[in-house]
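Usage

Read records sequentially. Each one opens with the input sequence:
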Amino acid sequence: MSERTYHHGDLRRAVLAAALDVISADGPAALSLRDLARRAGVSHAAPAHHFGDRAGLVTAIAAEGYELLAGALAQAPDLRERGVAYVRFALDHPAHFQVMFQPDLYRGDDPDLVAAKERASAELRAGITSLAATPEPRTAGIAAWSLAHGFATLLLSHNLTGPFDGRDPEEMFRALSSLLFTADRRQLPGE
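and closes with the structure output:
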C-alpha cells in the first residue's frame, strides 16, 4: 500500500484553475470536486478541505470574478471605457463571467462574495458620474450595464460572428455605446 506523498504548493489556486478550465470547456454543470482533485493530482478530500462543497467552490470563483471585474473597471476613466473594460473582462475571463451571473450556483450571502460584488457595483456606478446631465442616473446605469453585459454575452455565446467589418469587439462596443450615450443627445419621443 503506497501512501500519496505528493505535496501541492497552492492547492486552492490549482483547484480554482482546474475548475475554470472545466467551466470554460463544458460549463459549470460539469464541475465535480472529485474530478478536480484528480486533475490537481491530490486526494479527493483535498478540494473539500478548501471549499467545503461544489457551491463553496463556485462561490469562490464568483467572488474572484467580481474582484477581477472591479479591478478592471477601476482602471477605466469614464462610462464608455468601463463598458469596454466589462466586455474585455468577459472575453478574458469567460468562466468567471458564466458563474458570476448565475446566483443559483453559489452562496449569495458569502461575506467575500458580498464584498466583491459591492466593489464591482461601486465601480459600475462610478462610471455614471461622468454623465453629469443624466436626469435618471440609475436608469442610465441599468442601460449601460445592459448594453455591456448583453454585448459580452452575445460575443461569448458566438451569436455575434461577423457584423464587425474588421473592427475588434472593443471598438464595436465603443460604436454601439455612442449610439446611446452621447454628449449631444437627441430628444427621444416622450421626453
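Summary fields computed downstream for this record:
- The chain has two domains: 10-52, 61-180.
- The radius of gyration is 20 Å.
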